[in-house]
Amino acid sequence: MNQPIWIGLLGFGTVGSGTLRILENRLEDIARRLGRPVKVKKVLVRDVTKPRALPIDPVLLTDNPAEILEDPEISIIVELMGGIHPALEYIKAALSSGKNVVTANKDLMAIHGRELFALAEANGLDLEFEASVAGGIPIIRPLKVCLAGNQIEDIKGIINGTTNFILTKMTQEGSDFSEVLKEAQALGYAEADPTADVEGLDAARKLAILASIAFNTRITLNDVHVEGITKISARDIQYASQMGYTIKLLGIAKETHGKVEARVHPAMIPNSHPLASVNDAFNAIFVKGDAVGETMFYGRGAGDMPTGSAVVGDIIDVARNIINGHTGRLSCTCYHQKPIKSIGEVEGKYYIRLLVTEKPGVLASIAGVFGDEGVSIQTLIQQEQFGNEAEIVLVTHKVQEENLQKALNILSEMPIVEKIGNVIRVEQG
Amino acid sequence: MNQPIWIGLLGFGTVGSGTLRILENRLEDIARRLGRPVKVKKVLVRDVTKPRALPIDPVLLTDNPAEILEDPEISIIVELMGGIHPALEYIKAALSSGKNVVTANKDLMAIHGRELFALAEANGLDLEFEASVAGGIPIIRPLKVCLAGNQIEDIKGIINGTTNFILTKMTQEGSDFSEVLKEAQALGYAEADPTADVEGLDAARKLAILASIAFNTRITLNDVHVEGITKISARDIQYASQMGYTIKLLGIAKETHGKVEARVHPAMIPNSHPLASVNDAFNAIFVKGDAVGETMFYGRGAGDMPTGSAVVGDIIDVARNIINGHTGRLSCTCYHQKPIKSIGEVEGKYYIRLLVTEKPGVLASIAGVFGDEGVSIQTLIQQEQFGNEAEIVLVTHKVQEENLQKALNILSEMPIVEKIGNVIRVEQG
Q1: Nearest CA distance, B306 vs chain A (angstrom)
Q2: Which superfamily does CATH assign the domain made up of B344-426 to?
Q3: Distance (Å, rounded) from C-alpha A351 to C-alpha A85?
Q4: Is there a contact between B305 and A315 if contact means CB atoms under 8 Å apart?
Q5: CB A309 to CB B274 under 8 A?
């Protein structure tokens, strides 16, 4: 059987060209591994005449999706276009006509995962998506298979390279957000419109996928509470560092008493936590299971070759299943339906930085407001004076977010409170 | 189909009881995941009357292997006895009679992996062994499947918890090896006879398994060059720290120009390397692939529940294959036969600590010997005087180990060299 397993690529951007490059570089090795070669037959692009960074045989290119989706020789569709439409329609067409699918599309999986899995399962086909979360880092399969004996308790991930690059630079250089954003854009680490990254949306999509697998219940993008890093200032980072903390944009998902919470926001973590030293554009996912304890998966979360590595890993796995007649063996693992915790119900510790009018009794009034709402203060870090203003920094004990928000609402109405500088969650474990 | 998948456990020590505990705790969840429950039918022990830490129904216990190996209802044999005999014979009997095997036995896999795989393959059965390397950390499956598109360039692992605990304590407390070993023994981190751990043998077995998978060629224990940590002194750690390095016992495997090297020895790594902050009994495996770049897998490398987590992950995977009629899908991936590099051929940088007689011209003579053998010196760190002795510490440029050994042999014969205090490899990348 030297007949190739034929692939159709949808999209030929960064990840598409990385994937093709790896498949070409490793052609012989993959053929040896599987007993049959794996080859790209067609690549769908918008404009077949556009010059490409990676040299590609022009006969491979097509702008007609039917040439791929209706080719009976193609058994794996690799969707690397991104976005919801028309990727959703193409994947549905592929699964409906007996083709297996590999995708790196986090937007799609975070919203339409359930229906796509149902379709794959109904047709006995594979739908693999390792590349949709954290680029090259193996995390989907380790969670689905290797850690399957665990009740996962907690996931904390640095799953957006752009924001981790920005926060690392801010920490190392003491600079403010807007300054470092420009630097990141110049270096190609942030896009011209950085919204999806810096506002946490990209991380939220990945977290929805991770949480669904970890807790075996469907979590979609809408279930994730999202805050970005645009409000983090050099001052916050400085205070964090004084207290022995590092600020990271984390995707956090937890199960407590049968309810699941999923949230993306900046957080202070102790410098001794393994995530604290994950710097620059690197990603890492920290997973706590009841049996395995603490584990962490670290690597490059983006880029043509790292993400291509995850795509090709999936392609080889699907090809092996095709050769052995085993496709569809590992389908959706969301066999529970667990309720979602609202952000108000979430418990945590908070760092709060306030600007107040400097006069006697201010501290007492502020402490009184927190006390009335059941928010107890663990540490009062510092009071710094600027003219007739003072900066108060405090860290609360564990409290329900709802109560904290009530206290903050009251504070924000008080004449002595000039400004709530920032509120950042503190994550210990 | 509510018929259970029946398991036979061989061995009921630490990992055996962890495995049983997880299977019992997660019984319902696993049944939901697979559509069928997974249950332990029999457990082979040496003495059925011995009291057990984990309460176990006495009807499960047997001291007769035939009760498990010849039970037609049992479809998965889980071997957790360790050692070569009779584990080897039992596994062969299981595979020959149509039973799938899950094992945590590194000794066995590092020596008899090839024949066991051949037997599993011939019978279309699964042989899974995630727990044999680095306890609960998912590493075998990520290497075999997720990173399959990569040419792996380099593996560096902290894969022995005992020695990592000892080195961490030595670093934090400035104490010498023998002192910390006693502490580790008292805490249960080191065994009464610590030889296999502190001499690097345990790590060497795991490295042989990892290297075989990473480079798709069979590496057995005999192919691994092994040195332990017994000669590391508080002074070496102090010098390392001055130079910005941490000393770790590493398992290193690399492929260069088609040849594979595999070695276990103490090494200095830069403090900024992700492995440098892997402390206490934690393990981590750092993997560099041509596409994925740098990745790291971190977690607990031993213990009843972490290792049990890996065993149960394998059990669930095999059970899924049994249910779907897919066993034997992922067999041996050693489809190459690559030559092994001898330790003399290996290139590296070296830290050398010498005790010499303090008199004029000593440095020149020593530098001369290195120069004659083609060993060039990058840094001369310090000279400290003790009476009429001086300590010379130097780091070489990259050199072939053979040449370094020649220089060291000559030095050790020179009257001005009182003692070669230590020689430790320096690993940069």
Answers
A1: 4
A2: ACT domain (3.30.70.260)
A3: 41
A4: no
A5: no
